[in-house]
Amino acid sequence: MSSYGTLIFFYGKMGAGKSTLSGQIAREKGAVLISEDEWLAALFPGEIKNFNDYMSYSSRLKPVLRSHVEQVLLAGTSVVMDFPGNTRKQRAWFKDIYSQHNIPHELYYLSVDDDLCLEQLKQRQREQPERAQFDTEEVFRMVTAYFEPPEESEAFNLQIIERKST
């Protein structure tokens, strides 16, 4: 058994509850929580105005964090990354962090139906008005179209959490 920390990351639609779950897991495991939204807002305030801006700035952030996260994991501290792992390319970035040293990892798949995600996005619009321009049904549909479910060949330690609207 290694003394490395565990890398924890997520796959799920907008509004599925990835950020809420990431905070909960970080608290329960005494892990470092790294939120992409918080880092982007702090480093590039007011500069992300649309989805293309998000993609551009996110791709600038990841190389900076990659080595840092790996070092934290190698030091024995678990890291919860509130970053999307919704495409094969995004998940390859996480795999690049943990695979060289066989660092333990967990991919949480939040299987949440569209209606519940949209309900939760509306709630988030009310609670976080600064995100309202992105937390729309139109952006939800656009982003969801890019989803690529994890395949067995990717060999992730997958945890599935299912939620449906009531």
TrEMBL record:
Name the UniProt record assigns to this protein: AAA family ATPase
Organism: Marinobacter koreensis
One Pfam family per UniProt: AAA_33
Family annotation (Gene3D superfamilies): P-loop containing nucleotide triphosphate hydrolases
Upper classification of the organism: Bacteria, Pseudomonadati, Pseudomonadota, Gammaproteobacteria, Pseudomonadales
